[in-house]
Amino acid sequence: MQRLQSSSTQTTRDDQKKREERIARNFQRRKAVEAARIKDSEEKRRRQLIAIEEYKQQRLQAVRFEGSDLKENQKPIKPKTGRGNCFKRRF
């Protein structure tokens, strides 16, 4: 009887140890994934800031060397068509 109880206790301890190791591995894995995600998001943010800074520099150079570049950014003027007799359109 003593031997049976001892082996079941040993099995329980082994199971407990395996469970704790599995929990620890999962925790480490989650931490690693979270750290990688944070690093990726920081890298993405850094790239965005660099792109914004480059864009600002390009705009400044365009304004300095070419005068005003507002004409390039304006939409083309569309002719105002279809504004003939408004009375006909109602009926």
How does this model look, in words?
The protein is mainly alpha-helical. The protein has one domain (2-68). 81% of the residues lie in helices and 0% in strands. It contains three helices and no strands. The protein has helices spanning 2-66, 70-73, 86-90. It is elongated. The mean pLDDT is 80.
How would you concisely characterize the structure shown here?
This protein is mostly helical. It is 81% helix and 0% strand.
Question: How many separate domains?
Answer: 1
Which structural class should the secondary elements be placed in? mainly alpha
| Average pLDDT, all residues | 80
Q: Low-confidence runs (pLDDT<50, min 5 residues)?
A: none
> Biggest β-sheet: count, sense, barrel?
none
Q: Percent helix among the residues?
A: over 70%
Biased composition (Basic residues): 77-91
Region (Disordered): 1-24, 70-91
Organism: Caenorhabditis briggsae
Biased composition (Polar residues): 1-11
